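Database export, one record per block. Field names are fixed; values are copied verbatim from the stored entry.
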Amino acid sequence: MREQIAVPAALKSEGSSMDATLSPLNKRQEKQMNARVTDLAKLPVFWDLKGKRVVIAGGSDAAAWKAELLAACGAIVHIYAEELSGIFSSLVDVSQASQRRRYIHHARPYTAADMKGASLAIGDFESEADADIFFNAGVAVGTPVNVIDKPAFCQFQFGSIVNRSPVIVSISTDGAAPVLAQAIRRRIEAILPASLQLWGQMAQGLRSKVNARLESGQARRRFWEGFVDRVFTGVPNSTALAELLADAAKGDSRVARVGKITFVAAGPGDPELLTLKAIRALQAADIVLFGSLVSNEILEFSRREARRIQVDRFADQTVDSIAAFLDEGKNIVRVDLSGPLEGRRFREEITRLKASGARVSTVPGVTESAEVLHYALTAVPFGGYANAGHGEQFGSAR
């Protein structure tokens, strides 16, 4: 017999036919509730330092990098060191010549009094004894402390950063493997286009206007969904802002989502040979239409919520499916290998879609030249190699 839990009297209503018992959560439900946030090694926090005083103790190149990072956030960096490295000296000299002084050099060692009232304190010390004194001085006055390359004396850490400000991505391995964090950063840098910064800046300028013109939360959400649809399409053009504001001014709860399709040539089918532009297109897609030879590894670049549909063999049937999705305002990616047969299908589909007025773009894939070169180097010991006889390939990047 299943265990029952009594309902508290406060939850019972007079005359209610509700049973006086409730079933307890089963193990699966408990696991789902408990798994909303798994253990975190550190809390990722984005700190506003504009106009705030921060302390740097030390004049090394490592300290200079931390100072430059803090100054980029708008902090006023007070440097306490008798001597500065060449790089650090250059930063200070440029700052002194500018109207906004970001770096203030005090040519002496720091004192405990210097740390009082500072938003952050960063030190660079060779000995653990000096690091310990600096750490305790900061703790005593309530200033968060970080000692470079000495995790035991750090109340916070600096992660690897992908800067598309106001869009910022920070990666941390809790100090276990900084090289791994840097490798992750490089991967993210490659995926996020530089134009993301411009879209982020536009979003900052739009928020108050959208909130003023669209009253309901649902309408605002739909507006921003329409905005996000445009983010990975390229640099915002001169009409993008006007169109978005016009939609907001109408108070239309259905912000126009213009359907479009991108044809992605996946090269010979190796997921590691996909171009960055191809990966970005897949990640932005609502629907992915793929050929039978496209691997799961390639499809995994798309979002989890994107629909993945294997296309029919005939161009007219595929085009009919695409047209229906375009009418719904979907962002579609049509992906296939770069072989001759796939190229002919692409050309047929593109011709028909353009004739119907659809928004069509293409993403070239790599050629098979790398594979041919590998074959030439490994399988043909003498002489050249014969032309493989392949015809023109769709979207080949030569």
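Remark 1: Residues 196-250 form one domain.
Remark 2: Residues 25 and 295 are 40 Å apart (CA to CA).
End of record.
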